[in-house]
Design a protein that fits this description.
Leucine Aminopeptidase, subunit E, domain 1; binds adenosine-5-diphosphoribose; 5 helices; 40% helix
């Protein structure tokens, strides 16, 4: 039975086996979580992402898909990159966002990760409402079988998003 918890803080400092990056389709870095993870992981992460692009996703990582790399200078073991839906591009279907969480859990389970940390995917530059992200994330994670995964942690930046996830968890009775 997995535990699901919420903390406020910087996901780059998490020591879970895997942390999830709110990337973009290029996988070549950006701002927000993506920028923080690349800065903390060091330049080898960008090299690894370029390799992923060359070998597996030459047209870029699709929205809702997930792929893992090593974590290099980060304290965790793996970074699972996923691309959230962008509300400013009309990508507002909940299933697109739910897929970011479920595909990341699939990848984490395939790696044998026992713990995983998620940011509030799409709740920043991609313009989704924090309450909706929280509801979708908590439901998707709650319904996924999560084989071998003992801990799922939502790592949130600031009280607004933290409250949204606390509320979503309490509504689900978690
Ligand atoms: N740790 C945890 N959460 C963070 C961190 C951090 N270090 N930095 C930002 N956040 C929070 C934001 O406050 C927001 O609540 O993560 C959430 C997601 O915000 P973004 O990082 O902007 O991600 P997203 O909305 O999915 O937009 C992705 O932004 O950075 C670019 O390359 C990225 O193009 C992609 C887009």
């Amino acid at each position: 039975m997995s535990t699901i918890d919420t903390v406020t803080g910087d996901i780059t400092r998490e020591t879970t086996d895997a942390i999830v990056n709110a990337a973009n389709s290029t996988l070549l870095g950006g701002g927000g979580v993506d920028g923080a993870i690349h800065r903390a992981a060091g330049p080898r992460l960008l090299e690894a992402c370029r390799r992923v692009r060359r070998t597996s996703f030459p047209d870029g990582l699709p929205v809702g898909e997930a792929v893992a790399t090593d974590a290099f200078d980060l304290p965790c073991r793996w970074v699972i990159h996923t691309v959230g839906p962008n509300a400013y591009r009309g990508q507002t279907h909940p299933a697109l966002l739910a897929s970011c969480f479920t595909r990341s859990l699939d990848v984490a389970a395939e790696l044998g990760a026992a713990s995983i940390a998620f940011p509030a995917i799409s709740a920043g530059a991609y313009g989704w409402d924090a309450d909706e992200v929280a509801r979708i994330a908590v439901a998707a994670v709650g319904e996924h079988p999560k084989p071998g995964i003992e801990t799922v942690r939502f790592v949130l930046f600031g009280p607004r998003v933290f409250e949204a996830f606390q509320q979503a968890l309490s509504e689900r009775g978690d």
